[in-house]
Design goal:
Elements lengths: L8 H13 L5 H12 L5 H4 L4 H8 L11 H12 L23 E7 L4 E2 L8 E7 L4 E8 L9 H8 L5 E4 L4 H9 L3 E4 L4 E2 H10 L6 H7 L7 H8 L1
């Protein structure tokens, strides 16, 4: 149980996932309606009995939910309340990694909604794919669910903390306040609105490690390629 004893931690995570699927509805509001529907304390066992009809009834007339929520989203939300992780089979395999395995590498997070793709918004993606990117190798070292972050008071601060061992986070989109929170966690956001396969974006990053642009040089702690000619003039 959580500290207030009215909901288990796992049940809270499931409700957070369902709320996000329902067009980012308010988690607290959905949890309150869920408690009224299934009774307190809210447990995984009770959530496993929630039906599509039950959820539609809970959402009926709620200002926190768009009135035209599509049926597919409601069905997916119910599966998440049940704890169904049907997408687990489509996720890429994580490779073992120990610090120092790839000397001079960067740790990079990728906001992902599906498979091994860069297709997520910072504030709503269900997971971050975490890679170690070196000059000769790109290795997927972790897949971090964001479910636990979404039950925190400030989910964007919690999401930034989830990847604060990374120097860069690639996102398809991110809002200004969320970007500022990522930067405060020493994670540099990089927007890639076109999305696509995560490895394609990381290969582009890999290609400029030897001659980094100023923003990347700052992260690496080296001199930017574009500034080297001025250093040469000064030395002469």
């Amino acid at each position: 149980m959580t500290s207030n004893g009215i909901i288990t931690k796992e049940a809270a995570l499931r409700i957070a996932l369902a709320a996000r699927t329902l067009d980012d509805v308010d988690v607290a509001a959905l949890a309150s309606k869920m408690g009224s529907q299934v009774g307190l304390p809210i447990t995984e066992e009770k959530l496993a009995k929630v039906t599509v009809a039950d959820l539609k009834l809970m959402l009926s007339g709620e200002e926190t939910v768009e009135p035209d929520v599509d049926p597919a989203s409601i069905k997916l939300a119910v599966r998440q309340l049940w704890g169904d992780s049907a997408d687990a089979d489509t996720l890429p395999a994580v490779q073992a990694y120990q610090e120092g395995d790839i000397p001079g590498s960067l740790r990079v997070a990728v906001a992902s909604n599906s498979e091994e793709n860069l297709d997520g918004h910072f504030g709503s993606c269900p997971r971050f794919l975490v890679y170690q990117v070196g000059r000769e190798e790109i290795r997927l070292i972790a897949i971090r669910s964001t479910a636990s972050a979404d039950v925190e008071e400030d989910k964007n601060v919690a999401r930034a903390a989830l990847i604060n061992d990374c120097q860069i986070v690639y996102v398809q989109s991110i809002g200004g306040p969320a970007a500022a929170k990522a930067v405060r966690a020493n994670v540099h956001p990089v927007k890639a609105p076109e999305g696509g396969a995560a490895l394609i974006a990381l290969q582009r990053l890999q290609a400029v490690l030897d001659a980094p642009p100023p923003w990347l040089a700052k992260i690496l702690g080296v001199e930017a390629q574009s500034l080297r000619r001025f250093s040469t003039v000064e030395e002469e």
